[in-house]
User: Fold this.
Amino acid sequence: MDSQQVFTLGQQGLMVLLTVSAPMLVIVLVVGLLVSIFQAATQISEATLSFVPKIIAAVAVMALLGPWMMSTLVEYLRETLMMIPGAVG
Assistant:
């Protein structure tokens, strides 16, 4: 396995990681922003108020997109493991 293959494999891994984690990060970011706007508008300065909506949003995203995330990661891992015999031999 030469350096180009290693870099390609690393790049593919980072793209899969970004693709799988992006929905969760975006939804939690939007929920956090909305809660912050609500706190600023109502002048509620409770620090723990933002955690519950973020956790609920994260659980909802995992419930909806969890199977897709898992299948994407398993497919990437399967492809990576199937490349090992060709890289060694």
The longest helix spans residues 3-42.
